[in-house]
Every structure is written in C-alpha cells, then in structure tokens.
Amino acid sequence: xxxxxxxxxxxxxxxxxxxxxxxxxxxxxxxxxxxxxxxxxxxxxxxxxxxxxxxxxxxxxxxxxxxxxxxxxxxxxxxxxxxxxxxxxxxxxxxxxxxxxxxxxxxxxxxxxxxxxxxxxxxxxxxxxxxxxxxxxxxxxxxxxxxxxxxxxxxxxxxxxxxxxxxxxxxxxxxxxxxxxxxxxxxxxxxxxxxxxxxxxxxxxxxxxxxxxxxxxxxxxxxxxxxxxxxxxxxxxxxxxxxxxxxxxxxxxxxxxxxxxxxxxxxxxxxxxxxxxxxxxxxxxxxxxxxxxxxxxxxxxxxxxxxxxxxxxxxxxxxxxxxxxxxxxxxxxxxxxxxxxxxxxxxxxxxxxxxxxxxxxxxxxxxxxxxxxxxxxxxxxxxxxxxxxxxxxxxxxxxxxxxxxxxxxxxxxxxxxxxxxxxxxxxxxxxxxxxxxxxxxxxxxxxxxxxxxxxxxxxxxxxxxxxxxxxxxxxxxxxxxxxxxxx
Length: 487
Ligand code: SF4
Ligand code: SF4
Fold this sequence. Notes:
This protein is of the alpha+beta class.
C-alpha cells in the first residue's frame, strides 16, 4: 500500500519531533456524477437525521407519540409499531450484526463507499465545507486569504463561518437528544429553561463534538482516529470496485504537447486537479491508500481536465485492480461480483435478516415468570392438602390493559387463589395487568399429598390473553412433605 504523498517525512521536517505538522487540506469544489451523488446522499441522510424525531406515531394517550424513541427512564425502545423492552436487547445485537455484515458485503463489492458517502463524519464534514465555501470561497481564495494578513474582510468571514458552524453543530447535537426525549417537549423545555441538567449537558457535548470533528478535525478523523480503514483491507480483494487511477493510460505523465515530435506521454497532464479536489489531500496516482475514502471527487476533477484538454474521460475511474492489470496487458476482463467472500457475506446477511425478522414477528407480547417460595417450601393445611406459594410476574407488552387468564395444570385436584383474597381455590383465576407494564401477584396453590411423587411434581402455569388468544406456559414444581425440588 503506497503512502500519502502530501505528508513530508517526519525526519525531513525535524528529526527531534515524533509527529509531522498537519498539512492543511483545502479541497477544491468539483462538479460531476460523484459530487452529485454525494449531495443527494448528504441531503437524504440529513433529512432523515433531523426529521425522524418529529415523525409522530399514535400509541394511545398514555404512551409516547414519537415514531422513533429510546426512552431510557422508562426502559423502552419505540420504533413505529414495534416496542422493545430491556429483555429484547438481543434484537439490538441482531441489528448490529446485520449492519456489520452488510457493511462487510458492500465494502468487498464497492470499497469504502460507506466512508465516502454515508459515514456521519463525511456527511457533516461535507456540510461544513459547503458553509466554508459560502463565506471564504473556493480553494485558491481560501489559501490566499489564510496566508495573508488579518483584514476586516478576512475577520468577518471567519467569524460568520464559525457562527454558522456552531449553529449547525447545535442543531445536530439537539437533534441527537431528540431521539431520547420527545422532540416537541424537548424544544419547549430547552427554551423555557426547564429541561434537565443532563439535557443541557449532552446538547453542549454533542454540539462541541460536531463542531470540532466536522469543522476542525475533518479528514484526520478518518486517517488517524477511525479504526475502520485499518481492517477494511481484509474485506477488499483484487475484484473490489474502487476508485483507481489508470496508470497504464496516464503514464508517463507530463504537461507537454502530445505530438509525434515530443516525448511520448500518457493522458495525465500532471495538473494535480485530482489532489486539489481530494478531501483527504492524497494523490490517487500513488495507488491504493489508507486515506482514500472512495468518494470519487478526484474522478470528477480529472474528467473536467480531460474534457478541457480533449482526452477521453475516466482516466481516474471506478474499477477493480484485476481489471486494471488486464487492461494494462491489453485485455478486457468482466466484473466479478459473485466471489467466495461476497457469497459468504451475502449468505450470512440473508441468514441474519431472516432470523431477526422471524424472531421479531413471532416474539410474544406477554410473558410469565414464576418463582416458588423459598421458605417455607410448602405448608400442610387443616384439611390435609398441601399449599405452595409462588410469586408470578406477567409482562404485558401490548398497549391494552388486559385481564389475563392463569391456569394451573399437571396435578390432580389442584386449585389456586390470589394470596389474601379469601376466595375458594380454582383451576383458573383472572389477573388484570395494566397496558405496557408488569403485574406482580402472589399466588397460593393447593394440592393433594397423594398426588405427589417423591415429594415434588411438575406444575404448569398457563397464561392466556383472552383478547389475542396468545398463550404462554411456565413450567414450575409443586412440593410436599419430604420432597425436594424436582430439578
Ligand atoms: S483519492 Fe479520490 S476517491 Fe480517494 S479520497 Fe481522494 S478524492 Fe476521494
Ligand atoms: S487530474 Fe487527471 S490529469 Fe490531472 S493530475 Fe490528476 S490524474 Fe493527472
């Protein structure tokens, strides 16, 4: 892997220093298909990010009406019609696995398009650069002004740029908190000074983070801070579609005229437009580099030059290394999308999506857990029957208050009552649980010692939701004299 050409060797700068100074990058604006695609993705991502918290979803009067909400105080995650409880955390794990495998697949097919187009760092850096150009102009103007003395024109442009950056960063930080707190309530509480200290603190934190990372750190986040470039190489191979310089066509590079009398030159006129357009400041002609985020802006820049000098476009293009080697040898190889690694990633992705989807669709909306009393394990009552005590918890994950039916089975002549209810023991009792909550009940079960085998016996609690007909069964034990738990 070639190194970036823009950074001077550390020892050449100063042998006593461990780090080279940052070579400031002034990316030049370009026009072309890559830039258009980047604007489209940027607008879609920003619209989604800023707009999603404002999308409403009716769940009834007592429930949040925000379509996407991570309600930490109440331990709920709402996603349109889906509501997840803390015990459903494995769906989040599944979503992360799907995301990771999807990223592996896309990277093995198309290189670092995630980095170049959809990564939040790229999206916000692009947005901040757009703001910068509005106030300070394009590359040459900015460089000239930065190297010049402080004038009124320079000062007001810098101040205005940073003010807008801070505004965007504040908007971004505030939008992030809206995924955790109801958006309209947050806005009202924030401006009336009644929001919690945590809300103000986190908005400040995310405002500062956005401002520093997108405004100041920019490409350094991708080059030095992000771990992804370090291991994405393991997902790429010679058949991955990446931004590449067609060396066989461009070299030897040179400014001169291409005529029979002069030296034989390739199509690259060595104008450096590709370097000037690059947001990470590298020279794509040096080959595959860690800093390259596959954004394609150098493709657009070079196409503009090729048009001007009358050479065919796409000297820098999207292609695979294998096809480039073949082209250099005069052959034209087809693209190979289906390869062992893409097949494995695709299979793993389909499997993960299927398992996740089925698990989500079939997940129970009511659950029961039963805990047998530890002491006493049982009691013998006056009529000779044996009594066992249980604590039963019923999770009602629906948005309706429900009278659940609880039945007990597996033991002859068995009956149960709610503790301290004074009712006659029955095989079936009704337990009301409020919507979206957990009901806890203490139950006493009465059985006949003659029905016990070796002191304990399996006992099943069946919970039924009469509204939906769904049923959940919990396997427990019933204990009697001399017995121990069956398990
Ligand atoms: S070399 Fe080209 S594709 Fe890579 S980061 Fe620079 S402009 Fe983007
Ligand atoms: S923009 Fe194209 S012609 Fe100019 S230096 Fe880069 S590769 Fe060569």
